[in-house]
Amino acid sequence: MSATRPTSIETAIERCRPTDKTPVTLEASALPSARHELRELQRELDANDFVPAGVTVDACFDADCSFATQDEADRIREYVRTAAFLGAGTVTVEFDTVEDESKVRPSLAALRERAHREGITLELDGPITLES
After folding, report:
1. 3-class SS at 33?
2. Is the distance from CB of 108 to CB of 58 less than 8 angstroms?
3. pLDDT in tens for each of the 132 residues of the chain?
4. Would you call 53 helix, strand, or coil by DSSP?
5. pTM of the entire structure?
6. Which residues contact 41 (CB under 8 A, 6 or more apart)?
């Protein structure tokens, strides 16, 4: 018996077992904000054989204002934290328009970094893309 830990993700994946749970993507607007309500949601999902795979957030970056952009980024950051709490792996940010890319791009890059630290993949579904 080896006391060493697996050195790669492949080793961990080789030992995976299938489950009968259904992955679901949750709409951010339907999620509760209180931790005790999120715990209840976790219990309900589990009881119904669902696993939170992702959270989708509708975002709005149509104001040419640094404060508005930061407020929206802060709102999305809370959903990143919520996704991590629920065990979801992805947060998808959906948005149609961007008034000023020079204000939005750094906020989205910071959000991506925060999501990465939380173990979440941040995906963008809008007119801006970020380099990986």
Report:
1. coil
2. no
3. 455 665 677 887 888 888 899 999 999 999 998 999 999 999 999 999 999 999 999 999 999 999 999 999 999 999 999 999 999 999 999 999 999 999 999 999 999 999 999 999 999 999 998 886
4. strand
5. 0.86
6. 31, 32, 86
